[in-house]
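pipeline/complex-builder :: batch 7 item 3
reading input block
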Amino acid sequence: MAVEADLQHLPRIERSAAQAFQGRDVPAFLLTHASPAEAWRPQLEAGTLWVSEADGALLAFLAATADGDRLHIDEVDVDQPAQGRGLGRRLMAHAIGWAMKRGLAQVTLTTFRNVPWNGPFYASLGFMEDDRLPALQEILRAEAEKGLSDRCAMVKPL
Ligand SMILES: CC(C)(COP(=O)(O)OP(=O)(O)OC[C@H]1O[C@@H](n2cnc3c(N)ncnc32)[C@H](O)[C@@H]1OP(=O)(O)O)[C@@H](O)C(=O)NCCC(=O)NCCS
């Protein structure tokens, strides 16, 4: 679980992770924009912000929000040099395990359709594309307003 001192490192990780989108059909602002550290305080306080570290350095984080019987993955980012070493999968498994332990019914997220590793990664964790939940439709609408198109919602029933 993350602690207060971790918050300041999250924008750096988000920006670094996004470099994986270079050359992909995603809005250019994603490569330079990162959410402010304070954006993740609600998840920190709710106990649904998790980090991975190695040799004293923070390398990845996952922020999620519990909403009724659902855990929504708000963000998962791995520092670019550390990608592909299993950190993202481990953070996702941890969040899913957290939701299962609390008897939640599903884990949800939104992701890019046209980023080739996104859908298959989440599908390998048991997520299926499903845009039916009104709360997810609302998130997709808000993302589209910010310029994020070609997004889909995915749901993992527990
Ligand atoms: C997507 C992300 C969270 C996955 O975490 P990770 O630690 O790099 O991934 P893992 O090592 O746990 O591997 C997960 C799977 O995704 C695949 N993958 C991850 N990043 C990839 C990339 N850039 N290109 C191709 N495949 C990729 C891996 O091959 C792996 O598949 P496998 O387990 O079948 O071998 C991380 O790569 C990341 O931050 N990417 C940039 C930002 C992003 O895409 N965020 C998610 C937006 S919804």
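note: Helices lie at 10-18, 41-46, 87-101, 118-123, 134-145.
queue -> next item
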